Each structure stands twice: as structure tokens, then as C-alpha cells.
Amino acid sequence: MNALSGPLGLVSKNATSRTPAPSRRMDRRSFIKALSATGLTMISGPSAANTDEYHRSVSVIKDIFDRHFFDPTWMASQQAQTLFSDLIDIADASPEPEQFRRDFGHLFKRIGLSHVVLSAQHRSAAELGHHFDTVQVGVDAVSLGGDQSVARLSVRTFMGQDTGPRITAAFEEIISNDAKGLIVDLRDNPGGAFAMRHLVGHCIPNGVDAGVLLGRGWPREAGPMPERAQIEALEPWHGTSVVGLWNHLATHDITRVQFLPMRPMFHGPIAILINGETQSAAELVAEVLQSTRGAVLIGETSAGALLVQKPFDVGDQFTLFLPVADYVSHGSGRIEGVGLVPEVSAPAEDAQSVALSFLSEMRNIERKL
What we know:
Blueprint: H1 24-37, H2 51-68, H3 72-75, H4 78-93, H5 97-110, E1 117-120, H6 125-134, E2 142-146, E3 150-155, H7 163-176, E4 181-185, H8 196-201, E5 208-214, H9 228-232, H10 242-251, E6 254-259, E7 270-274, H11 281-293, E8 296-299, E9 307-314, E10 318-329, E11 333-334, E12 344-345, H12 351-368
Parallel strand pairs: 3-4, 4-7, 7-8, 8-12
Antiparallel strand pairs: 1-10, 2-3, 5-6, 5-10, 9-10, 10-11
Helix pairs in contact: 2-4, 4-5
């Protein structure tokens, strides 16, 4: 049986060099730089604008919030009124666009609301939607290591049309090498889209209802989540387009989130590594495998940033990324602003060795049964 620590073709980031892999932290920094080249990260600012233009931008932003923000009751709150008043003050004080964007970010970070980002506009919202539905992330998204007893699968993003097939290819290697345990490394994973279905699907023997996405039409005064019978009366959404999901959420108050099994199937024990930068779709994956598959979370509390985000044009200067739906899990409830607390706490540098010890103990218990 071949070890899993060497290059593995499709899922190996070092398939041609066979040189020692860099540290995880440096590896991920390099990967984020690569993502920025695809347009997923936008850091440069537009040309300077005058105060009137900033005020017009604030007016457009407020209108987008009024029409699309997932929680309209919050928009009527004193906190929201104060925030938009502060935003006007920021528009008065900001000397240039980059400063306006930074101050905007600080303002929303202070209230603890994730997935609200004001970016320089390099593509229209429609172009971004097409980009998200077609982007190829490349081999750095997924890597596989380990040995014949424990496989180590690192998934750095769930974005990319090629990421799901790379995850499937990794599971083909894991199964063919007869791995007895699996470590899934989701540390520093910022989330993404539908590649998460592959990671969950290859680990579940049956279909799983994970939770619901709640749009702005869900009456939040009725409770944090619909009744289970109400949810099960809905057809699950199994689309593969980010734009398709945005369109669905615009016309559906409740969206049933369901995962289906995929082949090949991994049946052994699973440990999932998380940290404070494990966000969004990565948190959803970790939670559903914990609650339905018995996976053990190891590391540090996750980011608690789990909302569905959509881009909107703010004139031709900025793009506003706004949360248009909330996610509530059947197993853990609302994750936004809370995060996932690991069952086994461990600093980042020790998490992998702790996971190896845990899986070794699990195998010893199984042999005694």
C-alpha cells in the first residue's frame, strides 16, 4: 500500500517538484495571493471622489440594505439608524476612496455583522456572478497527505468549479489506500460555494437535512427557525450556480439545505481541524459532519461568519457585498456571531498531532469492541 504523503497528481499541490511542502501558514498566504489574481480578492481603490459622491454612495448603500438585507427588522432598529448616521459622518470625513472603504469596514466590524464588505469595483455585480460560477481555482485548493492508516485532507476553499472534482479525486485515493481514519483540515478556509457538497457527500451514507437558509421574508418574530414539518414539505435546492441560488433566495423565504451521499464513501472516524479563520461554508461543512457523522472538531473556535453574500453595484466606484440570507442548522442552531466550539481545544501548531492521537485512540477502541 502506497503512502499518502507524496504527490497525488490531481490533488497534490507539489505534483512536479516533490520538494518538502512549506509551512501551512506560508502555504495559505501564497494561496490567498493566488486567489486575488482571480478577482476573488479586491484590494486597490478607485480614483478620488468628492463628498457629494460619497453621500450618493451612502444613499445607494442604504437603499440596497432596505431592499435586500436578510433581516429587515434590524433595519428598523436604533442600531441601524445610528450606523447609517455614522456612515454619513464617514462620508464627510473620508479624504479618499480607500479610507472610505476602510472606515466602512471598521464600522460594520464593530457591530459584529459578517459578510458586509465594500470593495473597489473592478467588475460589475453581474460579471462577478458569472465569475463565481465559472472560476477555476486550481490545484492549491485541495491537497492530500498522511499514511496508510490516517489520511490528511486539506481543503483551503470551497470556491471553484474544479474544487469539487478535486475533493472527489482525493477520496478516491483515500479509499484505494484503505485509510482507517481521516483528518480534514479546514483551518483558514474562508468558505465558498458548492464544492462543500463533495466533502460532505463522500462521508455520509444517507441523505442529510442540514438546516435552512432564511431570507428577508421569513418572519423572525415567529422564531429562529421554521417547524421541521414545514421544512420537510419543501423541495431541497440542489442547484450548482451561485447566481441561481441568489435568484432562488430572492423569491423563497425558506430554503431547505440537504446533502446527498456520493461515491466513493468513507466510513471511518473523522477529525476536523478548525480555527478562528474557518468561515462560512467551511463552518457549515464542519457542523454538519459533526452533528450527523460524529466528526470531532479539534482546534480553536471558528469565525462565526455564516451568511449568504451577494454583490451589488454602488455606482461605478464600489461594490457592496451584502448578506441576503441567514443559515440555521438543525444540529447547532444559528452559527453567525457564535462560531463552532471545538470538542478538543488545541493551538494551531498542535491541532494535527492532537487529531492523530484522537484517531489512534478511536481505532484502539474499535479493535477492542
